[in-house]
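Service request form, structural biology core

Requester: graduate student, group of Dr. S.
Request type: structure prediction, single chain
Budget code: on file
Notes: please return the result as structure tokens.

Sequence provided:
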Amino acid sequence: MDRRFMDMRGVLATVAVAVMTVAGTGCATASAPPPAAPGAAQPAAAPAAPKLNRVVFALQPPAVEGNYPITELTPNHSFQYRPMYEFLVGVDENNGKLIPQLATEWKVEPSGTGYRIKLREGVPFHNNWGTFSAKDVVSFFTEVKKPGSQAPNQFQVSSVDVVNDYEVVANLTQRDSDFINVASEVPAIAVMMSKAQFDKEGQPTLSTAPLAGTGPYQFDSRDRGVYMRFKKAPYKHWRVDATIPEFEYRWMKEASTRLAALLTGEVHLTTLPQDLRRQALQSGMKAINGSVPSLRMFGRLFCCYYKDPADPAKGPLFDTPLNDVRVRRALSKAINRTELNKSLFGGEAEVMVNSHFRPQWPGWNPDWERRFPDEYGYDPEKAKALLAEAGYGPAKPLRTNVIVAANWVADVPETDDMTEAIAGYWRAIGIDVQMVQQDLAAVTPRQRALGYDNHIILQGTGSYQLFALGIFNAMSFTVRGGAVEDLEVDRLWKSIKETLDPAQQEALWRQLGNATFEKHQDFPLFWLPAVAVVNPKFVSDYKFPGLVTSTWSHAYNIKPAN
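Core staff response, request fulfilled:
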């Protein structure tokens, strides 16, 4: 890691803070309530009202802004709507466990290919768009299967039978042990929206408001590329009342700009890379971690696909060096994870052994820890030897491409620095690395079209285990192109998904973990805490799990400083 770059960024941040401080001295901050409209009745004094009228959370802008999560947004982008929507199944902010939300209970049907779900009664949609009931559940599962949906294959629902207004049976095309997880707040796909509004107004656009939800906050306004605002639901919420009247996502690309805005009170929460976080803490800011440290970074390989998965004898789609497991292993062994951890994360990250397995999760094999130093650990000479075995060396250097797409992993601000550092490690063992700048919105369509043949990108996710393995290791969950394709891995993943018996699942999990470990489908890097940096003059606490897809949730738990 080039410390000159790190130091320069700190200098720029300090300059930015100084400029913002001077510029902001004559400006009202978000803690001041907006002036009343001319002629409007003046509100009565309310001594108990919080000092903070609108809490502002600064984040890198999402790659895609849209108004219809099912069809326009992948789970990685749908976080922008979480304050206003709820799900059939929620997530406990203290431990990340699934808990009832709009569904009060659920059970597998005797056939094993259906789920009976009882729904919560009396939950209103925002802006008087009716009350949540079975028809809204049916509407979601109807829309999610239509062409253009970003989640067509993640649900195996063939139909939904309505038992009564508050009970449905979701009929599946096959046994699916993962149905409740996928329908939960963790991947944030199954948002419950008002069918009544959809029937009357149709699919919204960016020039209209999104469809009404049932969350503690409701949509207020947006300025595309600048902010998205919500206001507290104007009634006692059935589950939890937000303690701050308004919530805003402020889109700020540069970390130094976010730091400056945090220190001056323009924003109240943000995410920062380790070096700028250190500056923030030294200036009196406070770091708040998610309750479940499941945010993970790993190297994702876009390269290695079958011409026809149904007929593997036809061979690979591309003649790419990354088809060779020795090459993939060499890439991993060239990375000095200890140095990266120290320079980028202050030693606070946990080195990852297997990308989607932890000791407390299904399938963990303690033997992986023993084998890790030899199989994955930093050893540039061994990496060179592996490349030589695969036919690469000074006379014929391995060539590969590293994709650099701004905001691809918005939850890990250190991603760009890590990408540059890893490319440097590879160049040090003789690999010809081309850095490919890509527009973020273009990466996913090209990847899904199998348009990459020798490309690597750093991936971050907080998604749960089976979902992540389906997206990043298997072929059957969504569309192809997500990972190095392997028939054994795909078979085991499908078996786990279709197996309802936990004991049988555990044995399959162990086999799947062994396969991903030995085949080097990706290169594991770090487990990271999700960290929100807050200005304690405005925010006293924020409880969030940190394991949901795209990390940020439970905005109603942000507590003001009184």
